[in-house]
C-alpha cells in the first residue's frame, strides 16, 4: 500500500485532497443551513463551462472554473431580487447558461484538451500549478470564513433579522458566492464536476445526525469529509476507477452507517428505559 506514496501524482492528489476535505464542509455547512445545497450543485455543473473556456483559450482550466463559477454565483445572488419566490428558476437559468456554454464549446471541436477527466475526477491530472492554486484559494477562503464567521452564522439562521441588525447581507452573500466558487475550483481535479456537490453537502448531512451544536457539527463535517475523500482516493487507486464517483459512494455509505448507528442507539436507549 505504501508504494502509492512513491508516485508524484499520488502525492499531488493527497495534497489537494487534504485541502478539499477541509474547505468543502466549511462552505457546505452554510449552504445546508440556508437550504441552498442545490445552489452548490448548480455551481458545480457551472464549473464545466469555465473548464471548457480555459481549455479553449489554452489557460489553466481550474482558474477558468473559478472565474466562471464566481460569475455564476454572483448572477444567482443578483437574480434573487427578481425571483424571490422561485429559487428553482434561478438555478434553471444558471444551469442553462453554463451547460449550454460547455456543450457548445465541446461540440465545436476547438478544445485543446479533453474535459473528461474534469467531469469524473482523475488523480493523474493534478499538476504543481494546480497545487499552488489550491493552496492560495483555500487559504483565502478559510481566512475569509474566519473573518465573516459570526455574520455568516447570523445570516444562515435568519437573513431578515441579520439585515435589520445592520449586517451587510447582500455584500456577504456575494462574497460567499465567490467562496463557493473557490471550493468548487479546488475540488474538480480530484472529485469531478458530476459528483462535486456530494463533497459539499454529504459530510455536513452526516455530521448533523449527531445532534450537536454548530461548532461541533462543523468539526465533525470536516472529520467525515477527510474519511470520505481519503478512502475514495486510496480505494479508487487500487480499484482503477474514477475517484469522484467512488468518493460519492463512500460518502453515501458513511451517511447510511451513521443513520443506522443513530437508529440502533435510539432503539437500545428505548429498550433500556423500559
UniProtKB/TrEMBL annotation:
<feature type="transmembrane region" description="Helical">
    <location>
        <begin position="214"/>
        <end position="235"/>
    </location>
</feature>
<feature type="transmembrane region" description="Helical">
    <location>
        <begin position="241"/>
        <end position="261"/>
    </location>
</feature>
<keyword id="KW-0813">Transport</keyword>
<feature type="transmembrane region" description="Helical">
    <location>
        <begin position="12"/>
        <end position="33"/>
    </location>
</feature>
<dbReference type="Pfam" id="PF00950">
    <property type="entry name" value="ABC-3"/>
</dbReference>
<feature type="transmembrane region" description="Helical">
    <location>
        <begin position="89"/>
        <end position="111"/>
    </location>
</feature>
<dbReference type="InterPro" id="IPR001626">
    <property type="entry name" value="ABC_TroCD"/>
</dbReference>
<feature type="transmembrane region" description="Helical">
    <location>
        <begin position="132"/>
        <end position="154"/>
    </location>
</feature>
<dbReference type="GO" id="GO:0010043">
    <property type="term" value="P:response to zinc ion"/>
</dbReference>
<dbReference type="GO" id="GO:0043190">
    <property type="term" value="C:ATP-binding cassette (ABC) transporter complex"/>
</dbReference>
<feature type="transmembrane region" description="Helical">
    <location>
        <begin position="174"/>
        <end position="202"/>
    </location>
</feature>
<dbReference type="InterPro" id="IPR037294">
    <property type="entry name" value="ABC_BtuC-like"/>
</dbReference>
<keyword id="KW-0472">Membrane</keyword>
<dbReference type="GO" id="GO:0055085">
    <property type="term" value="P:transmembrane transport"/>
</dbReference>
<keyword id="KW-1133">Transmembrane helix</keyword>
<keyword id="KW-0812">Transmembrane</keyword>
<feature type="transmembrane region" description="Helical">
    <location>
        <begin position="62"/>
        <end position="83"/>
    </location>
</feature>
<protein>
    <submittedName>
        <fullName>ABC-3 protein</fullName>
    </submittedName>
</protein>
<comment type="similarity">
    <text>Belongs to the ABC-3 integral membrane protein family.</text>
</comment>
